[in-house]
Amino acid sequence: MSSVTLNGVFKSYQRAGDSECVVLRDFKLKLDRPEILALVGPNGAGKSTVLHLIAKLTEPERGSVSVTTEREGDVQVGYVWQNYRASLLPWLSVTDNIAFGLKLQGRAKNERRKIADDLLKRFAPRITPAQKCYELSGGQQQMVSILRSIARLPDVLLLDEPTSALDASARWGIVHHLEEIWASRPLPVIYVCHDVDEAVLVADRIALLSRRTGQVAAIIENQCERPRSARMLASSEHVRCRREVLDFLLAEGDFENGNAAAKKNDP
Amino acid sequence: MRHKDIVPRSVLNFVGLPLLLAVWQVVFSLKLCNPTLLPSPGAALGRLWEILVTGNVLPDLGITLLRMAIGFSLAAVLGVAAGLLMGVYQPLYRVLAPVVDFFRSLPVTACYPVFVLLAGVNHASKSLMVFAAALPIIMLNTSYGVRGVSPIRAQMARLFGASTPQVFLHVTIWEAAPQIWIGLRTAFSLSLVVEIVAEMFAGTQFGIGQRLFEAFNTYRTDELYALILLTGGLGYMMNLAFALTERRLLHWSSK
Amino acid sequence: MKTKSILNLIAAFAIVWLTGCSKSDTDTPKAAGATNAPAPMAVTKTTLTASKNIWSTLPIVAKQQGFFQQEGLDVQINYVQAAKLAMDALVAGSTDFANVVDPNVAFLAFSGNKDVVVVGTIVKSHDSAIVARKSAGITSPQDLKGKKLGVLQGTTSQIFAERFLEKNGLRYADVQAQNLQPVAIQTALIEKQIDAGSVWQPFVHNLQKQLGDDAVVFTAPDAYIGYMNVAVRKEWVGKNEATVAAYIRALRKAEAFVAKNTDAAQALVATEINLGPDIVKSIWSQYEFGLGLDKAALLKVVTEEGQWIKRTQPGFESKEVPDYSGYFDDRFVR
Fold first, then answer.
1. Residues of B with CB below 8 A from A103's CB?
2. Within a domain: residue C17?
3. Whole-prediction pTM value?
4. CB C316 to CB B218 under 8 A?
5. Is the CB of B121 inside 8 Å of chain C's CB atoms?
6. Domain holding C153: CATH number?
7. Residues of B with CB under 8 A from a CB of A
8. Residues 6+ away with beta carbon under 8 Å from C318
9. Which of B27, B157, C26, C304 is geometrically suited to a Cys-Cys bond with B162, CB 3.0 to 4.6 A?
10. 3-class secondary structure per residue, C58-105
11. Residue A250 Cα, gap to closest chain B Cα (Å)
12. Could you tell me the residue ranges of all domains in chain B?
């Protein structure tokens, strides 16, 4: 079992003109079971900052961030970036991209390629292992990125707006594949997302981050059963969760991050 | 309605040179330039064929390419190494970049006495001039390549546990490779020019530049233009070799 | 927008330059009280292309002292790096007059071009020399045997070297000739990369200065005399005889000036060619500045050079030595 704990975290950034911007203020968040936690909030609320802190890409000024695991060895964090093109290695094949983390671990070539090819066969059979990433569509590239992040069997998986750069059909494809992947090996996942429907659909819990307070304003539990699918977008539980998220976002005053179309149809 | 190409695209690749020769022939036939100074394309091509078939241009060609290759190879090795260091260490970049940029613009042949002082009056000084002209270009392009590496890729590698040397070996060098190649390709073209100009400026026993100067000086314009065509053809083929290599080895650049 | 501004600026410059170039004669200011003076002589614009060195003394003096102007000529002098480039400009029709040396004529004739004609000689030069290093064991001409001699092939440097060696009982093959430009010969000699060099002024002077006591200079004034000549195109001279005559008259005046006012001539030439006055003074005696055209002598010189070209220059072995008689016209200097 793995867990992620942020306690009393303060984090600020230098803005242009030397002024400081406090993003997280006495921030608290805990995941201690296999679940998907969506992080939703207006721009500047610190969603990506939370992921960077967990991945140790940055350090908090105050407070603690810890990721623990019961298994032996170092904690493995999987990360999926929004900009898949900038995170994949175009000089490597799809297989070698997925196996990249395993290579750094020192695994033998045949072994790591087999792991990569098995993942592809299982979750993305339409992608040819020998292809170059730039030959794939956006959705396929993001799939490769996701498979790379899970190839090392991470203790926690972080996804930073994984579908923002994709078109609608690719986006729902990723959501569907992620559901499959998580079902095959449940683990703590933090999913940063701007789209309210997407966040609600994937998540067991939705954490609402407030830009004004720099903290988690509320956590919404989504009781929808798994496996989730796009058909559940109209279910009452989904609609209830969505309304709560939208109310929060409207109250935060950042209307553009709500699902405008959904709000129009919301009775 | 789909627009059809008037001339198939594959044919267009081969139209430029014959067109140039046709224009040249027209200029010659209409005597727009004195025939003492500009021969017919036929005379130039004929002379080119002659010097290639009899092999009498080979010693000159060989020496020019050898001196150029020595100077360029040294510049490539040192330039890439120094450029990588400059790209990785910001303080080093700040100190060296203005200096290297300064030297990039210098007319190398005008500093001939310095090269003679360092390397004598014969082959070595010309290779050294080529080296001096090529080095700044390779250094700067290599450092640009390193500095242009996507921070996300470096982040990704670190997240997967890569140490700093591993980030460098698995990400930085590869990502910088297309820009490094651009530097090498540019420097290579310049190397040929500098070698030939150095030969013309300083004089030498054998060399395409020397032959060019002699042909120019003695009104042997068929030979002069044959050598010009040869030099142009050489440059074109070398560039093509670079482009083909790039397509194979650096298939991801510009993707 | 930026491109447009630059284009406008270029257009403005062009307009100013063109109106400046085509300034009419009537813009010339009249002297005070000269309202009843006769109309000024029509000025003919013409061009001379010449190398920027002491060999161009007569036309430089003619321009600076207003002799060209007195003859109704507005001569624009275009300077080039070598006389060969002046010959090229003449052949291309981009200059009316060119200062060319005898080897230029010798080589040109092989190309079959018969349109160039020499109408006068403006200087005979004895400035060729072999400068050697005493530290290379050279104190007499015979010591050159087996030594590295810097020579610029195909030019007077080679001609002089061959003739000098012959005069001193050596063959060209007895030295290790290294083909180098004069700039490179100068550097290589100073850096002790070669033992001697066959050069002309001001390289001889520079080397003497740089090498100091280590320098030994071998001259042979009769071995090679360089002629700087006034050349024009035949088809052009046919239509512009008056201009050529006026040009030659101006050079005649310059010749007289140089003879009578040596110091002044040296000073203004030194300024024009950007060479130290002391250098100009020290090398002046190696030149006979005078206007003339010894047809027979020049023909002999150039024909001998033609034979030398055929004998020694790559690519000329199978060519016939041209007939040079049509390249000289002395009627303007007689």
1. 170
2. no
3. 0.81
4. yes
5. yes
6. 3.40.190.10
7. 150, 152-153, 155-162, 166, 170-171, 174, 177, 250-252, 255
8. none
9. B157
10. HHHHHHHCCHHHHCCEEEEEEEECCHHHHHHHHHHCCCCEEEEEHHHH
11. 32
12. 61-207
The residues of chain A that CATH labels 3.40.50.300 are 2-76+153-265
The chains found to touch B (3+ Cβ pairs under 8 angstroms) are: A, C
- Do C and A touch, counting CB pairs below 8 Å (3 needed)? no
CA distance A30 to A22: 21
Range of the domain at C185: 129-218
Question: Most B CBs within 10 Å: which of A67, A79, A91, as the mutation test of the B interface?
Answer: A91
Contact A207, A219 (CB under 8 A): yes
Q: In this structure, is residue C30 part of a structural domain?
A: no
Question: What is the number of domains present in chain C?
Answer: 2
Q: Which pLDDT score, from 0 to 100, does residue B116 have?
A: 79
Strand partners, A22: A12
pLDDT band at C6 (very low <50, low <70, confident <90, very high): low
Burial, B66: exposed, middle or buried (Cβ in 10 Å; 0-12, 13-18, 19+)? middle
Do the bridges between strand C97-101 and strand C226-233 make them parallel or antiparallel, or are there none, so unpaired?
antiparallel
Mean pLDDT of all residues in C310-323: 93
In chain B, where do the E strands start and end? none
In-domain check, residue C33: no
- Helix, strand, or coil here: A9? strand
Q: Which of A88, A89, A137, A141 to mutate to test the interface with B (most CBs of B within 10 A)?
A: A89
Of C278, C308, C270, C272, the C-alpha closest to C154 is C308
- Maximum C-alpha span of chain A: 58
B37 touches chain C (CB under 8 A): yes
Q: Which residues of B touch A83 (CB under 8 A)?
A: 152
Chain B interface test: which of A81, A88, A104 (most B C-beta within 10 Å): A104
- The β-bridge partners of C229 are C100, C121
In a domain, C9, yes or no: no
Which pLDDT score, from 0 to 100, does residue A261 have? 46
Q: How far is A105 from chain B (nearest CA, A)?
A: 8
Minimum CA–CA partner of C189 in chain B: B121
State residue C19's pLDDT score.
42
Q: What is the pLDDT of residues B139-177, one digit of tens each?
A: 999 999 999 999 999 999 999 989 999 999 999 999 999
C26, pLDDT greater than 50: no
In this structure, how many other beta carbons lie within 10 angstroms of the beta carbon of residue A22?
12
The token duo for B48 is 């080119």
Per DSSP bridges, beta strands C196-199 and C148-151 are parallel
Q: Which chains have at least 3 CB atom pairs separated by less than 8 Å from chain A?
A: B
Separation of alpha carbons C20 and C73, rounded Å: 17
Token pair for C243: 């201009």
Tell which CATH architecture fits domain A2-76+153-265. 3-Layer(aba) Sandwich (3.40)
* B37/C179 Cβ within 8 A: no
pLDDT in tens, B1-36: 455 667 777 777 788 888 999 999 999 999 888 888
Which residue among B203, B216, B221 places its CB closest to the CB of C152?
B203
A37 SS3 class:
strand
Q: Are residues C181 and C118 in the same domain?
A: no
Q: Are C137 and C143 in contact (CB under 8 A)?
A: yes
The torsion of the CA quartet B27, B29, B34, B40, rounded to 10 degrees, works out to 90
**pLDDT of C110:** 95
Domain B61-207 has CATH 1.10.3720.10: yes
DSSP string over C253-305: HHHHHHHH-HHHHHHHHHHHHT--HHHHHHHGGGEEEEEE--HHHHHHHHHHH
Whole-angstrom Cα distance, residue C80 to residue A257?
72
The amino acid at residue C152 is L
Residue A24, min C-alpha distance to chain B (Å):
22
